[in-house]
Amino acid sequence: LVEALGDRSIVLVGIMGCGKSTVGRRLAQKLGLTFADADAEIERAANMTIAEIFATHGEPYFRSGEERVIARLLKKGPQVLATGGGAFMSEATRNEISAHAVSIWLKVDFDTVMSRVRKRANRPLLQNPDPEGTMRDLMKTRHPVYAKADATVYSRDVPHDVVMNQIIQALT
Ligand code: S3P
């Protein structure tokens, strides 16, 4: 599988809480590839948390930083890259990804996502009085775009290793 990838990376896309980082890290380990997390890279480059970047500079600033960081990471050669949930909405980023990687959408249902994101506070888009409504809207507008990924894997509330093996199957 790794040979078949050549110099392409595996990029995981999907909504917050779909498991991109957790599954991505395990997948990288299994395949002997480097793992990169775009959100973590953005935080490192800015020396601020995502929530702080949103609060201080606003979302458009975050999005342009996100585009740059992902483009830079993709040039580093074969790796597993977890993107933030909004990254794939950028056409420029989708083009970068298709030039350098195979993209996988980790598709997950509403209830699973809500139970996961409730556990983590660092999600500025959901820090409002109606996180459930926000999530429904995000899923509605984003799903047709995530569907442009090269493959879709259902990331239900099953062990992450099961999802990881489904990704490997989708790639072979
Ligand atoms: C976002 C998802 C987050 C992070 C930022 C915006 C989004 O990443 O990039 O809060 O627009 O869906 P995760 O998908 O890793 O939570």
From TrEMBL:
PANTHER family: SHIKIMATE KINASE, SHIKIMATE KINASE 1, CHLOROPLASTIC. HAMAP family: Shikimate_kinase. Pathway: Metabolic intermediate biosynthesis; chorismate biosynthesis; chorismate from D-erythrose 4-phosphate and phosphoenolpyruvate: step 5/7. Coiled coil: none annotated. This is Shikimate kinase. Its main location: cytoplasm. The keyword Magnesium applies. CDD domains: SK. The keyword Acetylation does not apply. It catalyses: shikimate + ATP = 3-phosphoshikimate + ADP + H(+). Its cofactor is Mg(2+). NCBIfam families: PRK13946.1. Binds 1 Mg(2+) ion per subunit. ATP binds at G17, C18, G19, K20, S21, T22, R123. Gene3D superfamilies: P-loop containing nucleotide triphosphate hydrolases. Mg(2+) binds at S21. It is found in: Cytoplasm. Monomer. GO terms for molecular function: shikimate kinase activity. Belongs to the shikimate kinase family. Its EC number is 2.7.1.71. Keywords: Amino-acid biosynthesis, Aromatic amino acid biosynthesis, ATP-binding, Cytoplasm, Kinase, Magnesium, Metal-binding, Nucleotide-binding, Transferase. Substrate binds at D39, R63, G85, R142. Catalyzes the specific phosphorylation of the 3-hydroxyl group of shikimic acid using ATP as a cosubstrate. InterPro entries: P-loop_NTPase, Shikimate/glucono_kinase, Shikimate_kinase/TSH1, Shikimate_kinase_CS.
